[in-house]
Design a protein that fits this description.
Helix 6 (148-174) runs antiparallel to helix 7. The chain has a three-stranded antiparallel sheet. It has helices spanning 43-57, 78-97, 107-112, 121-136, 138-145, 148-174, 178-214, 223-256, 266-273, 300-370, and strands at residues 6-14, 24-31, 36-41. The protein contains ten helices and three strands, in the order βββαααααααααα. It has three domains: 1-115, Phox-like domain (PX Domain), CATH 3.30.1520; 117-214 and 225-256, no CATH class; 326-371. The protein is flat and about 125 Å long. The protein is mainly alpha-helical and 371 residues long. It is 65% helix and 6% strand.
Length: 371
């Protein structure tokens, strides 16, 4: 078993950046078996770490984080600086040396301390993503995928799912019986659904990274790296769409191909139903819903995931339609206000016309008297 990580915060310094207001940096000293290094972090970095660890582990770390002070600043108060330094040191040591490994086994903790990633980073990222989905759905999953290291792990996982889907489709094409085709097709559909979910999480995570960079803070990835990752997602999306089309085409091909093991002979039908017995035309009341190309090769879990994905897409469409309806409503209200304004203006014109007409009539009467 590896020895526990030795963490201490022996000192603090003030930032020397002239473009921003001064703030306190905490020098975190990390002692590893082969080397020792220092990481500098602000108090806001600790706040972000605490929030993320609490979200991932569903419970706060064993030691409380020192509270934020609204009336004092560590820049002008040495006592507050020392108190917070000691509290942050206790906070980090409780996570690093405690018996519960939930918080220190996350990639967020290792990224915060600039520790090398472990060999099980892909499985750890996958577990964090599953936990985020169980807690809060797509938003939490996107926040988990916004970590650059986890993003790469999830991208490798997605590529693996696409590779497995391609292999299963090849096995289904080469299968000699209906059972083998069904099993391989179901596995391929399951891999494609998982890949689609991971692709959505990766897109959401990359979007969060871009928004953090646009808010003026330091982006987690550079502009070039962001474009490269967008290209990776674009190629993965094209590959997924191609595999889905291939799965549908193979399903249609397997349906059209004759199979003596599946098709029943006319003699067997006559022996079972009797001679001259035909199925009624049209819809039969109580008959099961016919299968589609998307659901034919799926099991119950796959159908459930497909239904959730379809419902999510429908929710997005409904939201877009609601935005359009609201925009049309606002335009209608503006048109109504403009019409009322024009009606008022026309009423004023009518009043002016009546007044001028009265004056003209009076002038005509005076002219007649003069004549």
């Amino acid at each position: 078993m590896a020895p526990p990580l030795e963490i201490s915060i022996p000192s603090t310094i003030l930032s020397s950046d002239k473009n921003t207001q001064p703030y306190t940096l905490y020098n975190i000293t990390l002692r590893l078996p082969l080397r020792t290094f220092v990481v500098q972090k602000r108090y806001s970095d600790f706040l972000a770490l605490h929030s993320t660890l609490t979200s991932l582990a569903s419970s706060p770390p064993p030691a409380p984080l020192p509270a934020k002070s609204w009336f004092k600043s560590t820049v002008s108060s040495p006592e507050l600086t020392e108190t917070r330094r000691a509290g942050l040191e206790v906070y980090l040591r409780a996570i690093a040396e405690g018996p519960d490994r939930r918080w220190r086994d996350t990639s967020v903790w290792r990224s915060f301390l600039n520790l090398p990633s472990s060999s099980g980073s892909a499985s750890s990222a996958k577990n964090e993503l599953i936990a985020a989905r169980q807690r809060g759905g797509l938003v939490d999953a996107g926040s988990v995928a916004s970590d650059p290291h986890i993003w790469l792990d999830l991208h490798r996982e997605m590529k693996g799912q696409l590779h497995d889907a391609r292999l299963f489709l090849g096995k289904r094409d080469a299968a000699l019986n209906a059972q083998g085709q069904h099993e391989a097709g179901a596995n391929a559909k399951r891999c494609l659904i998982k890949a689609s979910g991971l692709l959505g999480n990766l897109e959401e995570g990359l979007k969060i990274m871009g928004e953090e960079g646009q808010r003026g803070g330091e982006g987690k990835v550079g502009a070039g790296e962001s474009r490269r990752r967008k290209d990776l997602l674009g190629s993965a999306r094209v590959e997924r769409d191609g595999l889905e089309k291939l799965a549908v085409s193979l399903a249609v091909k397997s349906q059209n191909s004759p199979s003596t093991s599946i098709a029943s002979s006319t003699t067997d039908k006559s022996a079972l139903f009797g001679p001259n017995v035909n199925r009624p035309a049209g819809r039969v009341l109580g008959a099961p819903v016919p299968e589609t190309d998307k659901t034919r090769e799926l099991d119950n879990e796959g159908v459930l995931q497909l239904q959730k994905q379809l419902m999510k897409d429908q929710d997005v469409d409904v939201e877009s339609l609601a935005k359009i309806v609201r925009r049309q409503k606002e335009m209608g209200m503006q048109i109504h206000e403009e019409i009322e304004y024009q009606i008022g203006a026309l009423d004023k014109v009518d009043e002016s016309v009546d007044r001028v007409k009265g004056k003209i009539d009076v002038a005509k009467k005076r002219i007649k008297k003069i004549n």
